[in-house]
Records
---
Amino acid sequence: MTAFSLPEGVRHWPQYFSPAQQQDLLDMIRTAVTHAPLFTPTMPRTGKEMSVRMTNLGSQGWVTDKQRGYRYQPTHPVTGKPWPPIPQILQDLWREVANGVAEPQACLINFYTDDAKMGMHQDRDEQSFDAPVVSVSLGNSCLFRLGGTKRGGKTQSIRLDSGDVILFGGPARLAYHGVDRIYPNTSQLLKNGGRINLTLRRVD
Ligand code: SIN
Ligand code: MN
């Protein structure tokens, strides 16, 4: 099991959410995207499209585009409306794993098609790194790559399955991470395949 060899500050709860809870989360996401539609984020300066589509829940949402780069904002970049609230089931998750830290302000929703991936990066657009990052996987499994806090250092790979939760906090709060690949047909949750990641964070 990988659980014994994860870096200090990283925790992995395989199957934290039951199949019924995963379905509830999916239903919640479906409702949320009718209010806050998925959009295609673009990289700062180059304007290159990322392969995931995204949206957010919470008082702040993470967005990126060519002109203004990576940032948090209280409204959807296309509709201009506030993001939908973070549902109770995710507030409860945070309370259970985040060790007394105040409630999450942002929940990024990433949708991966089976050929999408995410390059290695740090989550560092928040004003403070005291709170952990808590992340939920739904749908097809992925090969998640985790490094240290310096770019180009040693990395390890973990498979994340539907219902899994992973947390990076403390010495691992700024750990590099990315998604190398999605494994098609590894979950029945999403009828058309793909993977959803939910990332809970505090922003300030
Ligand atoms: C992210 O780092 O934004 C997403 C990570 C994941 O999809 O598991
Ligand atoms: Mn990230």
Note: The chain has two helices and twelve strands.
---
Amino acid sequence: MDTKLTMDKIVNLCKSRGFVFPGSDIYGGFANTWDFGPVGVELKNNIKKAWWKRFVQESPNSYGVDAAILMNPTVWDASGHTKSFADPKMDCKVCKQRFRADNLIEDYSKGTVVPDQMTNEEMQAYIAEHKVKCPKCGSYDWTPIRQFKLMFETSRGTVEGEKDVVYLRPETAQGEYVNFLNVQRTARAKVPFGIAQIGKSFRNEITPGNFLFRTIEFEQMEHQLFCKPDQALAEYAEYKDKAWKFATDIGLKPEHLRFHDHDKLAHYARAACDIQYLFPIGWQELNGIHHRGDYDLSRHQEYSGKSLLYLDPITNEKYLPNVVEYSIGADRLTLALLCEAYDEEALEGGDTRVVLHLNPYIAPYKVAIMPLQKSLSEKAKEVYNNLAKYFMADYDEAGSIGKRYRRQDEIGTPYCVTIDFDTLEDNTVTIRDRDTMKQERIAISELKDYILDKIVF
Ligand code: GAP
């Protein structure tokens, strides 16, 4: 990571190279929504693929689901979201900016006061006593604290006036809990086993921002491990390790990661922690790991009226398993990986190159094929067509070779292959490594395996 990295640099690179565009761009955008472009969608898909590979494909006791975004509204009563998924908000009467009261206190006290422990009345009293000013305009003229609901509501129904409220899910986890017994029975799964899901979640955040960090629509990758109650603490410790290992294996440096154990636990949690990443905006949550006890299954059992008890086939014991949850945002992880990979390197001759040192597995393109001259394009396209059967390859014949290398460096392509006149004679090509910029000559027949060997996760 470039030590002088700013979020603006990442945003600009993303816009100019086709990673991420502002949502509804031609209409002037739509605040805090983002569209992934041709290169960004490949990057995010590869990140999701890596997560799925680790937590489903290579975890023999884990199973995937893809549950509906719109769920029976009672699900959200059972989960506690309709009652308590809200943040304390205050509006500045002067500049009309909206803030979370807890964030105001945290920033004002420079982290010495933990507002999680305070009631709304206590937060309001603290803000009044210290005359905490609006961070935007410096005024001290606040509305009272009000609870701001974070779930997006929509309605279902065909007759005007007879519509039922439904919610866009604010987390994917509930789709895993309600399918606990469906998965257990059909997969003949034995506790401990996991259910994983990747999908969109929606939150009407009070303070979205910082590019992909906090948005109102985002993707989550969530894994719920269902285990025996007396095993849950050990599994929680194990999932802390697994989450850390995934983060470092995919490309985040350990020195930019740290655990943050929660002092105050949500009503359902027995233990909880985040892994934080050192974003350009400071240390922030990357993912969460929670020991949720039997809260979720017992609530769904109560609200649905259906037994969710698990029958242990060996002991014949019936019980509600505990849940250990590991949850990470795909967009937030994409942002962290872009920040980590970004570098500006001084080159001989005074030039600088921007390069993304992405793990080759997640790089949007694995290779770019470049004919030295347009007259070599037929041979180059033959090589491209062959490699594109196995992985994403790019084809570029525009501009000098140096410029083409720079373009690929900026989107993190690990290999560039140049087709020159010798290629026509001996069927060999030059392959250039993104990180070392070293070049070597290899036979076209070896190219596919050479690259496949390097893009393993
Ligand atoms: N099921 C548990 C759960 O949803 P969370 O801490 O609210 O827990 C888990 O969210 C992860 O989802 C976060 O660590 C973060 O990576 C991602 N996330 C949450 N809210 C987000 C938002 N508004 N924008 C982008 N990512 C978000």
Note: The CA atoms of residues 227 and 245 lie 21 Å apart.
---
Amino acid sequence: MFEKFFYVFIKYIVMYTLIDGKATAAAIRREIREEVDYMRHSHEKVPHLAAILVGHDGASETYVSGKEKACREVGFESTVIRYENTITEEELLEKVDQINRDASIDGLIVQLPLPEHIDEQKVIESIDPKKDVDGFHPVNVGRMVIGLPAYISATPAGILELIRRYQIKTEGKHCVVIGRSNIVGKPMSILLARKDYPGNCTVTVCHSRTRNLKEIVRQADIIVAALGKAKFLTGDMVQEGVVVIDVGITRLPSDKTKSGWKLWGDVDFETVAPKSSFITPVPGGVGPMTIVSLLRNTLLAAKQAIYK
Ligand code: NAP
């Protein structure tokens, strides 16, 4: 009996590596800070990120203030341009055009979602690809697909960086990506299949119309879960030694927290972690890497490292 508990205990403690996104993001912020300090001391222009925020959506306000705070921490300049919901598409496009031509600004993000009367795709496409540090412009997406230097959108870039820093082997592995959104699932599947590291995976993309999802997922060496359904992936759906990247964030009511809610990932950590070799927690996994990736893209923009 004791022996059984001992082995279960050891398996739980030793068998998997927790991918610490919070610590990794903090380390990257320090690295960026050092580079910015060097730029400042050398009298070079420091990176400048501009964000346009339309309306008063609570989540968008939180994201933008998080980005502002992150800019301050690493010594970037940041500008937030706020508009009421009543702004017209034309006025917004004019502002984007003005920022495109402003040499003092290196990167521009337009916080989504935008009000219904504004065509989001039109706005995204109006941003100069050289300043599109969110990596949403079709030029950057296209360049990423064919393997040219490009701004890679923040969440996929953050996941690649975690894989790199934890030296997770990807070559020849079967990776199953659950979700096919333009901001996570689709770019992740392309990036993991590219001829590079991290990459060289055989990738299967699953979505809401996938049949036999359980059987497919059970064959995965690497799983990227990005569907937004709390605790969707359970222990019985994964094979031993799997690498699990949990992108999902679902906020559910909880009577155990002060705030009255708790964040859940797409992965049932309790049952999946003991079978994993590497796993990201929620919170503290992919989430903290997202803003840091935006900072890295802005630094690349300031150094004109993507578009020479
Ligand atoms: P999304 O646009 O809603 O896409 C969800 C995808 O999951 C869709 O492709 C959908 O399939 C698929 N899906 C839904 N239910 C499914 C099911 N039962 N089985 C298989 N596939 C299913 O979401 P997203 O923007 O990619 O975000 C996904 C999750 O990641 C969300 O929880 C979001 O909050 C989180 N997220 C986290 C970060 C971060 O920084 N950590 C960043 C971005 C997103 P269809 O295409 O067929 O509809």
Note: The chain is about 40% helix and 15% strand.
---
Amino acid sequence: MARIPINIKEGKVAKEDDLIVGIDLGTTNSLVAYIKDGKAIAVRDQEGKSSLVPSIVYFSAIGRIVVGDSAKDKLITHPENTIYSVKRLMGKSYKDVAGLENYFGYKVIDDDTESLVKIRVEDRFYTPIELSAEILKALKVRVETELGRPVHRAVITVPAYFNDAQRQATRDAGKLAGLDVLRIVNEPTAASLAYGLDKDNQHDQTIAVYDLGGGTFDISILHLHDGIFEVLSTNGDTFLGGDDFDRAIMDYWIEHHQLDAEELARNKELSQALRLKAEEAKKTLSKEARFQSSLNGYAVSIDRDTFNGLIRKYVDKTLDCCRNALRDAQLDKKQIDRVVMVGGTTRVPLVKTSVSEFFGKPVYDQLDPDEVVALGAAIQADVLAGNQKEVLLLDVTPLSLGIETVGGLMDTIIPRNTKIPTRAGRQYTTSVDGQRNLKIAVYQGERDLVENNRKLGEFILKGIPPMPAGLPKIEIHFILNADGILKVKAKELRSNVEQEIEIRSSYGLSEEEMAKMLLESIQHAEEDMAVRGLLEARNEARNILLSADKFLQQNRAILSDEEISGIREYREQLRLATEGEDKDLINRVMEEINEFTRPLAQRAMDAVIADSLRGKKIS
Ligand code: AMP
């Protein structure tokens, strides 16, 4: 349904479509930015303090969803209901994340290893897409509150190595949040745009974007020509970042200040406080030579040289990734013209100097490294809104794409790091006489056997005219568009039988599928609750049946015949009810039996008390 905004003051239909916001949907933090008076700005919180929205979603006991700083506070108190780092799960099947279970404090469901992961919170199941949508909704509200008007369109950034499933998942999250995602932009490209590197039209440039965040490291090598960005290669480490620096400081303190490691392992709050203190130390050391403080009566301190010694191995690891990226791009580090710094951890002086020394030139670090991607996304959004000249973006495919051939082998059709959009094809034939159908299974990955790669989808080319094996000529074409969505076409050239699929099958979701998925999760939640209600009622009823028997046995002497038969009758009714499926009936009969026996129980109690007052033993 189209929305028509009306400007009440002027009594006119408001023109609002010129606004498209830029969103950096990050692993740790997310931000939203837009162009104000020709300049990109990131939207801050109501107090004007921070533009970062922690990418954390908390589900309260009464079903309220909280995103951001308030959700972050729940990480310690309600880890099961607090979801973080959901970006790591985007577009992934359980098989992809197997082995990482311990990294997540919440439950990742593994009922079907091939299907997309889901996250369980209490009785409900959420997809990473739905959870990301909650973060996007919070960002939407933030920018709408600042602007005082609705926002419907956005550009969202993703890491350059995101595959088509992950890009599609990001788009779907936008849709679920009520945002029309006009483009998915690579984070390094956005960072380069924020520095206006595209404005130099005279020279070709090669740019290295070094992005060290809280938990991840990415290096991307871009080529810029005539305002066109091309990703030449990407590399990185999905578990390397500022968090490792914090942990290094913690370990150092535990060792040098004799902190009790066992108590820390036991006391979650204390270890969290220590982690925060370590982060504070790290941040202080970005400006000062020494950090000194205390925690729980312990004095803790560290100087910059010691800190540098602790983190050097991590920094060296990032430089190894840079070497690999240069190798993939077939470049020497001297050929890099500009180096752009992204991510909060690039504020660490050792990181800056090491990267600068490695590439042999000063780095771009004037903009806030936490905001730079969102600012670039806002600039790209402005370009799309027609407010700036069009900037074309090109990407590369991060993993090879191919099909399964005889013996379960992977036959690569589009090799990794190929510039997109692209298309490639190859001819195949049948292996059996008279074969009429050919299954085409599409995989992504670098391994020789398809079972070690990731299946993206499959289809069957039907109706091949019967011919001896080896005679049919089947051409398979891969077409990868600028958004990284893959189309696969198969055609038998002798008969012109043709078939094609778009690979979004089990990974990307259509709007209908998404609606269905949401509905199902709600329906299942209700079903689960109903089943649980019945089981609980039955259990309680069983206890009551046992108590009733015991009560009859022990108190026969003080009960009339009518009372005894009354209890027996209710008892039978309750027994019958527990055999049925109607939990309301069970509850009702339990109520009745309670009502009926309350005065009798009171009488039994009085009798016991009277007996005990007479000095008899209470058995
Ligand atoms: P990001 O994932 O890009 O938001 O990066 C967040 C990381 O940057 C966290 O590990 C922060 O501790 C770190 N960080 C933020 N400010 C500083 C600072 N001044 N010095 C060192 N690290 C910082």
Note: The two ends are 74 Å apart (CA to CA).
